[in-house]
Amino acid sequence: MKTTVNFYDFTQAWDEYNHETSFTYEGKRALFEYLEQLEQDIGEEIELDIVALDCEFEEYADLDELKANYPDIETLGDLYDNTQVIEFDGGLIISEF
């Protein structure tokens, strides 16, 4: 049995898991849209696992903030060479590496 999840359901599940989330509203929207597109691209439904998503992805306000955790990254190109990047208005999300 599967349930279709919309953005509201996604944010509710995220907030229930972690009230002090490190993801902004815009970041959650970008990640949700990325996951929806990924489902279409691979032709499979993705199980909503907020714990796994929170462990796998990290949101940063900009490249300078990210560099504090990843000093070897100097450009967005370097970042794209090392991991999955989701850019959105207000920041970027990466799959941690």
Strand content: 5-15%
Coarse structural class:
alpha+beta
Residue runs with pLDDT of under 50 for 5 or more positions: none
Q: What is the ordering of alpha helices and beta strands? A: HHHEHHEE
Q: How many domains?
A: 1
Which helices and strands occur, and which strands form pairs?
Elements: H1 7-17, H2 25-42, H3 50-56, E1 57-60, H4 63-67, H5 76-82, E2 85-88, E3 91-95
Antiparallel strand pairs: 1-3, 2-3
Please tell me about this protein's structure.
This protein is α+β, with helices and mostly antiparallel strands. It has one domain. The chain is 49% helix and 13% strand. It is built from five helices and three strands. It has a three-stranded antiparallel sheet. A hairpin with a 2-residue loop joins strand 2 and strand 3. It is globular, with a radius of gyration of 14 Å. The model has no long low-confidence stretch (mean pLDDT 91).
Entry summary:
By secondary structure, the chain is an alpha+beta fold. It has one domain.
Which properties best describe this structure?
97 residues; alpha+beta; 3-stranded antiparallel beta sheet; 49% helix; 13% strand; globular
